[in-house]
Amino acid sequence: MAYKNLQHFIQSLERAGELVRIQEYINPILEITEITDRISKHGGPALLFENTGTPFPLLINSMGTEKRMAMALGVNKLDDIAAGIMKLFHSLSSPKTSVMDKLKMLPQLQEIGSWMPKHKGGRGECQQKVMDPPDVTKLPVMKCWPEDGGPFLTLPIIQTIEPNTLVRNVGLYRMQVFGPDLTAMHWHRHKVSARHFNEYKKSGKRMPVAVSLGGDPAYTYCATAPLPDGVDEFMLAGFIRKKNVELVKCMTLTKEKYGYDMYVPSDSDFVIEGYIDPDEEFILEGPFGDHTGYYSLADLYPRFHITCITHKKDAVYPSTIVGIPPQEDAWIGKATERIFLAPIKMTMVPEITDMVLPVEGVFHNLVIVKINKEYPGQALKVMNSLWGAGQMMFTKMMIVVDGKVNIHDNYEVAKYISAHVNPASDIIFTQGPTDVLDHSCSRMAFGGKMGIDATKKFDEELPYPAAAGNNPRQFSELNPNYSKAANKILGTFNEIRQINYSLLEKGISLMLIAVEKSRKNHIRELAARLFKMDEIRKAKVVLFLEHTMDISDIADSVWRFSNNVDPKRDSILITNQDHALMFFDGTRKTKALDGFERDWPNILVSDEQTIQRIDAIWNKLGLGKFIQSPSIKYRKQLYKGGAVVEE
After folding, report:
1. In whole angstroms, how large is the CA radius of gyration of the chain?
2. Nearest 5°: phi and psi at 164?
3. Which distant-in-sequence residues (6+ apart) come within 8 Å of 401 by Cβ?
4. CA 58 → CA 51, 65, 73, 303, distances in Å?
5. Which of 37, 153, 509, 633 shows a CA-CA span of 20 to 30 A to 214?
6. Which residues does the annotation mark as catalytic?
7. Domain coordinates of the chain in residue numbers?
8. Which CATH architecture has domain 474-594?
9. What integer pLDDT is reported at residue 157 of this predicted model?
């Protein structure tokens, strides 16, 4: 289904009971975030803030549930898109042996042609109003978290052109506002637009950039999609919408100035045109409260100079927040998980039957893959294939399972891992590129990775009988009184603040320990002493976490652990004749205790003043029963300092 524009999508949400209009004045500086954070963490509705202190309303959390994400893409469920890709692939690739077979393809080829982006003459809806002079500060641009470097556009659809091939890329990168006609352009080194920029830098020519906001929500999703280089994101949008994207010529990004014309979707709500001068010094951008739940810290990025802003008469400003999961971006990630499962299966790893990116793993930290296993070592083959595939190269931890396990059930997956993993032989480590936002790496964007082969093993994959951990005694014969065991450990180690045995009690061989480390090699020494105690012999894996955390919250524990660990550097395997136990240090790393040289970021929470302000006006918002701020829980876990933690 193609939406005519963003207003059409808003009307559809409202008819479905999925949107609430808020007429009370809410400041885009911090206050919209605080309301949205409360709503998004409870699966609440899309929010249309109609009084932003600017001429424009603001839409947020519009894709904040699986239902709304499916609505945004015009399907009943996200798997429908993958099924459509599979059907198209099989139809196009099947043998065509007769003239009739080929003739039958004509309607389908005509349909494919109708998905291609189309240039449209004249002005589009997005150019009904021209802002003269251009002033991006007139938009309700949000400052999301207290330590953010300023207001940020968070859903800008950014188009760049490779100057040699004239191939278009459409991406989604945040933009910090520095003034009426100046922002930063935050594209990471691995992004296609960053490579385009490097080509302009070689020639010393200005780089034109077109930014659109709003329109059919499929555009926003497709700007995030991990497509191969050279595949037009607007073509994917056409496939999803079953209707081409109509593009109109930009007003200042023209062939006369840059050697080619740039185009934007006609139904966009806003268009921001401008350029980047590759010879100009970069600007210090950030910090920014990011999707990891931590601040991404200030760094240097290109300056984007705005030459023109146009908008619809009834323009709505789309925005989102990211932070401690779950947030709206979790469902954008879920769409990618479901949609791109089909291309991965068809072109690269046919044995994959399903794949999940758990919310707590914030996209790049954790993936669970299910395969149809047919030979020894197949799980390792799959890991290496995926680590070599596009944005999957950033995956820090990859778990491969097989059989009938439901990988959408976290506890079922955990039990399967417990039953089929020997820590001494089934956990592998490697290293490679990591996401730029991974703060745990000793060196930026390069660090350790872990693969867990949790498949049922063939004989060739089993360790020798005398190998460490191959005696099942510690898992089947020892059944400690967990309360008594916890008291003994707490009484023995002053640095241990909390122990979570709940997973062991459910037959999952993983335990969590909250520890306050205070000296070099503290975690390794503690692991060695704990290994000798019968009280932990039911475990195969022990995670050490921050002493400030409540480790009874498993989801939060997974989130903090996956962010804080470099699995290769922070793993400690201890074995003897009949016992193998893997410890992981998921605590914060410091220079004093760990020799860690990089700055460590703080977690994201609202300030007390903003929390109190929203508490006071909650009954005026029309959002139903009072929801307490999630930040109250997390403020107890804040480190000393601002966006950067003090030593």
Report:
1. 26
2. -90, -40
3. 368, 369, 370, 371, 407, 413, 416, 417, 420, 454, 455
4. 8, 18, 20, 25
5. 37
6. 290
7. 6-16+55-77+114-318, 329-461, 474-594
8. 3-Layer(aba) Sandwich (3.40)
9. 97
